[in-house]
């Protein structure tokens, strides 16, 4: 009943999402997910789940059941499938960032528990002289997204015209969010050098730099003068994680 999605399933996914799927170019979106070790699966034409290996767990990037079929156990079946998918890959559990109270209750009903996950930080920056080249093509392949992960923005924006900057083993995606620049960083663990490059890029645009980082990387940013963000919906985020 649950199968791997294909390019030809675009219309089915659009129907599942009521005509508002989280992408503009499905082919690019699907490629980006698979390049990062994840995949998309369909429950007939009624639901879908998008899974990504992240920080030793299978991260549920999207779990969606078509309106009219909710409350019939489809979401729970997709979660059971996600557990099997994670185990086959040697991952140690599932993680998800619920988008609202209904989603929160659903995951808790299915055995998930709270765990502190991220800290939001922001910093005023100035322009600098570091020379960088932006590019808009060839989404990077990455085995693990590093310290910065913004509830799916790193995938949702791959098809948009947000500049990406290559820097050795890192790629930075810049998303202008009006009052600040959200820098999404692909690569290994966060380090001071890549933080400096992100600061420089924000400075060139003339806006504050906004990051979300793993708790264990908070010390690096604290030493660089970043402050916990209160104005941007608080500074703590929670994920829900069950252990196998």
From TrEMBL:
Name of the protein in its database record: N-acetyltransferase domain-containing protein
Classification via InterPro entries: Acyl_CoA_acyltransferase (IPR016181), GNAT_dom (IPR000182)
Any Pfam family: Acetyltransf_1
Stretches assigned to the N-acetyltransferase domain: 1-131
Species this protein is from: Thermococcus barophilus (strain DSM 11836 / MP)
Organism phylogeny: Archaea, Methanobacteriati, Methanobacteriota, Thermococci, Thermococcales
Molecular function terms from GO: acyltransferase activity, transferring groups other than amino-acyl groups
């Amino acid at each position: 009943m649950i199968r791997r999605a294909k390019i030809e399933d675009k219309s089915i996914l659009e129907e599942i999402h009521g005509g508002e799927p989280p992408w503009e170019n499905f082919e690019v979106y699907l490629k980006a997910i698979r390049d990062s070790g994840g995949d998309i699966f369909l429950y007939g034409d009624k639901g879908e789940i998008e899974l990504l290996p992240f920080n030793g767990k299978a991260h549920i990037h999207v779990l969606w059941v078509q309106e009219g079929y909710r409350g019939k156990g489809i979401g729970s079946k997709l979660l059971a499938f996600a557990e099997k998918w994670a185990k086959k890959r040697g991952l140690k559990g599932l993680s998800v960032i619920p988008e609202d109270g209904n989603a929160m209750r659903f995951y808790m009903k299915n055995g998930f528990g709270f765990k502190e996950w991220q800290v939001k930080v922001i910093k005023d920056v100035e322009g600098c002289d570091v020379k960088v080249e932006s590019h808009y093509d060839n989404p990077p392949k990455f085995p693990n997204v590093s310290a910065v992960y913004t509830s799916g923005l790193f995938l949702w924006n791959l098809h948009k015209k947000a500049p990406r900057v290559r820097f050795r083993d890192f790629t930075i995606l810049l998303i202008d969010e009006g009052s600040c620049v959200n820098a999404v960083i692909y690569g290994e663990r966060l380090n001071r050098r890549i933080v400096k490059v992100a600061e420089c890029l924000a400075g060139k645009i003339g806006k504050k730099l906004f990051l979300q980082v793993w708790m264990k990387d908070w010390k690096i940013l604290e030493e660089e003068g970043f402050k916990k963000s209160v104005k941007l919906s608080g500074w703590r985020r929670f994920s829900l994680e069950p252990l196998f």
